[in-house]
Fold this sequence. Notes:
The chain is mostly helical.
Amino acid sequence: MKTALIFLGAIVCLLVSCETTSLAPPHVTPQMAKTGRGQVDMATLEHGRKLFVSRCIECHTLPPVASRTAEKWPHTVDRMAKRASLKPAERDAMVAYLQAVSK
């Protein structure tokens, strides 16, 4: 019983640490909604983050958001949109999130 509790505690710590590492996709903030091209809806950015986390992980590990510039993310998402079964609005939300984080 003691070993099981220790194991469970270790799993919880591991999961919490994964969410707080610099590799975890950043959570949406009001500052992200302000872009050089105007205002992006917070709900759109939240949806884009959710899609990034849930769809991309189906095929590979999540790339660090900082691994590409805001200008390169649309091309990257376009290359993988079909495999990820992204509808056009979902693609746009994901790109909006990635560009907001990368700026």
